[in-house]
Amino acid sequence: MEETRSQPRLADALSKQLLLKGLLAYSAFGACQVLYRLLRGWRESLRMRDMLADIPASKGNEAPMSWVKEMRKNFHRANDWRYEICEGMPICKNVGFRWNPGGFQVICGEPDMVRHFLKDAFDTYTKGVPSGENPFFIYFQEFLGDGIFTVRHGLGSDDDGKAWTQMRKISAQIFNRKNFNSLMQDVFVEKAESLRSFLSRPEVQKEPVDLQMGFFNFTMDSIMKIFFGEDSSTVMGKQNRYGEAFDNAQGAMRQHMVKSISFNLIASTFLPWPFSSPSGGGLARMLWDATSPTYREFTSELAVIHDEADRLVKECLADPKFETRRDLLALFLQAQKEIKFTTQFVKDMVLNLIIAGRDTTACLLSWMFYEISRDPEVQKRLHDEIDRKSPAGTSMDLKSLSHNELPYLHAVIYETLRLWPPVPVDSKVAFADDVLPGGWKVPRGTTLVFCPLVEDVGWKEARSHTTFKASACCGCDIDFAVLWYNMGRDPVRYPDPLAFKPERWIPFTAPPHHEFPVFQAGPRICLGMDMAIFEAKIAAVELLRHLRFELKAGQSITYGTKITMNVKSGDKEELLVWVKKR
Ligand code: HEM
Prior knowledge:
One of its GO terms (molecular function) is oxidoreductase activity, acting on paired donors, with incorporation or reduction of molecular oxygen. Heme binds at residue 526. The strands form four sheets. A five-stranded mixed beta sheet has the order 1-2-8-5-3, covered by helices on one side. A three-stranded antiparallel beta sheet has the order 4-12-9. By secondary structure, the chain is an alpha+beta fold. Strand 10 (557-559) and strand 11 (567-569) form a beta hairpin. The chain contains 20 helices and twelve strands. The chain has one domain (165-581): CATH 1.10.630.10. The chain binds protoporphyrin IX containing FE.
């Protein structure tokens, strides 16, 4: 009897002992892991600090990681803040923590440097790896999956860049001259006519209209047709849940990403497995994400996007004409047999191409019409040129819309891209130690950021004369920036830089890509560059043949919060314009 009563007590004591031992073992393991990470981080950070010692810190950001705090404070004017911290310096750095190598950035200001890391040393610099040290890429990858925008090439890739080469090769098939003058031309003209007919409605012309929304709908409808063979009519007011989900997911992702930088850096260093991991995962991040309303919004919108991508892929595969289809989705699915892409991969590609093709060109058109509708002289010159060279009823193709035929229109587009680059920031990460032109050392793991070659003279003075009001913007920022935005505003290269002067592009000589990296440069230069310009020209000619535009007075115009730089009026992402028949 005595013996049977003592058995549970013994089992209790044994399990308590086991628990205690387990806890002790886990504490020892956790402490060793944190210590190891700290030592490793400290050693790597020291090495980076030593190698970067010759490069001056960006203005106001001398203390380790102080730039993150400053960046947060300046979310509402992210692009201008980036200009100010490297003003007058051809190269500067943002300093990371002493115990984590993740926060080091080098901001380059000279086209030679840009050329070096986008072209000459192409294999050394690529996209970052999502990790605790690079929290920006965690969410970016979650959004874009394994598509062309996230895939790494060169030293940073596991497959020697094969996946990127294949994606690029297949995508490039759609951007040939034959397609421009048939499929693309037909689609752009049809969708531009729809937009023009919508804007010509008397009820639409009674009130100022959000022209930016019109352009996002126009580019969405065009992309759906060219890339996926699908007819959508958002331009005519038909709702597109996909487009909305896309915008909401982008906005929420960026907000959450910025909010999470410090948390991810700290958690991945100081919390042991399974609460965190150097790859950026772990229970702590799961909890952090799950309790964030912006993250929940991001994932629920992402689910809508994925369902839609699923539908597009299924319908394409079931199409009896599948084998003869030439839209981009069909090309990828046809190639799947030989290259063994997974269906998930094709879906990611779909998503990447929509972001590439829809938002960028819509931003270009929005800023272009912002400039046109606030300057009657520019609009008059465009009307005159179009009336003379491309009146209603004449066809629009690559030749008739070239810079030789319509030099002023071409110049307006380049001037818009200079002042309002649709992708104002971007970055590359060094995967090996390197030396930049000028002898500046760059350690492995540094994020390379571009900055313009800016002189102190000129910029401030020009700014004081501008009518652009960078107020009331609640835009957020990303931590790794490539400053296309600022390069276009360099007063040395572009005198009177803030003035909209299309004449500076006449006669037109294409600028070297590393000096004007609006479409990036080197082997990963934008694939859709010619398509975007062609599309913007067709839309502009079609609208200006029939309509005139006047900016609604009293708007405080600035830039918005998306990855691509859209127009913001007050606290709304819109561009209100009066549209009238000519
Ligand atoms: C004004 C319009 C556009 C601008 C300013 C623009 C700008 C850019 C930039 C800056 C990049 C480099 C991003 C990076 O990898 O870090 C890029 C890449 C890319 N763009 Fe565009 N883009 C525009 C329109 C388009 C269009 C219409 C398409 C057609 C789908 C397109 C397709 C791509 C693709 C596929 C890449 C990835 C290239 C690669 O990594 O190999 N873009 N674009």
